[in-house]
Amino acid sequence: MKIDNSGKVAAAYGAPVRAAKKEDVATKASGAASHSESVAISSQGLAKAAQTAEAFDADKVAAIKAAIAAGEFKINPEAIADSLIASTRELLAG
């Protein structure tokens, strides 16, 4: 994919444009005027989301930060690559 200096995708790679029929435009316009949607989250939903959220482990972060500062933090590129591949497979399968 080629991107020009403006950060926009080049026109050659854009999605094809379909011309809308007058009837389609009129139908969509009349339907949109009489249709509205809303979303609400209950307090029970918020409580459940808070329970399932993982806690931030400040001690672990501090230990990693200290190891990096001391030059003792070891990076395992094979484990990183394996995790990336597993995540990609999971995304493609689902």
Automatic annotation (TrEMBL):
Which stretches are transmembrane?
none
Pfam families named among the record's database cross-references: FlgM
Superkingdom, natural source: Bacteria
Which keywords does this chain's UniProt record carry? Answer: Bacterial flagellum biogenesis, Repressor, Transcription, Transcription regulation
Q: Where is the Anti-sigma-28 factor FlgM C-terminal domain positioned along the sequence? A: 39-85
Q: What does this protein do?
A: Responsible for the coupling of flagellin expression to flagellar assembly by preventing expression of the flagellin genes when a component of the middle class of proteins is defective. It negatively regulates flagellar genes by inhibiting the activity of FliA by directly binding to FliA.
Q: Which family does it belong to?
A: Belongs to the FlgM family.
For this entry, the protein name equals: Negative regulator of flagellin synthesis
